[in-house]
Design goal:
CATH architecture of the largest domain: Orthogonal Bundle
Number of domains: 3
Radius of gyration: 22 Å
Number of strands: 7
CATH topology of the largest domain: Arc Repressor Mutant, subunit A
Mean pLDDT: 85
Helix content: 40-55%
Largest sheet: 5 strands, antiparallel
Distance between the termini: 37 Å
Length: about 180
């Protein structure tokens, strides 16, 4: 990573992954991955000519910031996998679950999905029962997780997508009693 960043900084103009890969004797794919992490860290930007440095830092700092960006990306991806696992295991209307995942009002049970047709869709969980300050698409902040957006309010749970942490399912009771979320 440090070598890729050093090569980008030292490149005249925009750096191209192929030329950096040849210089470092690694694959262009490895260099592109490193440059994408540097982009996620806000150190380089891509344009039609290649990667351009937008913030000068030393290579060790660049590598650390790229590692932090990679960890953030991994947390978000893991939270998405957990949400899909929740979809597969849900006992509520699948349409309502998907609408909640995308931050939409869920309304009534669809009556067409497997859980609705089998009669297993939880009546209490059929659609959002959002009320108060935490309606879907409400921007919020959390002391530990930072800025986020309410995606779904379902019974005793509030699902929030945090920009740097991914999806978190929070206890509605804990949120309300301890003031864990503040509307932004």
């Amino acid at each position: 990573m440090e070598g890729a960043y050093r090569a980008v900084v030292e490149a005249p103009g925009a750096a191209r992954p192929k030329s950096i890969a040849a210089e470092l004797e690694v694959s262009p794919r490895t260099v592109t991955s490193a440059l994408n992490l540097l982009s996620d860290a806000g150190l380089v930007r891509w344009d039609r000519r290649g990667a351009v440095v937008i913030e000068q830092v030393d290579p060790a700092t660049a590598a650390e910031r790229a590692r932090a960006a990679a960890e953030e990306r991994e947390r978000i991806e893991e939270s998405r996998i957990e949400m899909m696992r929740g979809y597969a295991e849900t006992s509520r209307c699948r349409r309502a679950f998907l609408l909640g995942y995308f931050g939409e009002e869920t309304g009534e049970r669809c009556g067409n999905c497997d859980t609705c047709e089998s009669g297993h869709a939880d009546a209490a969980d059929a659609g959002s029962d959002a009320s108060g300050a935490f309606l879907p698409n409400t921007p919020v902040s959390h002391e530990e997780f930072g800025a986020g957006t309410v995606m779904d309010v379902d019974g005793d749970r509030i699902t929030v997508f945090f920009e740097h942490e991914g999806y978190k399912v929070l206890s509605r009771e804990a949120v309300e009693e301890r003031g864990l979320l503040e509307p932004r």
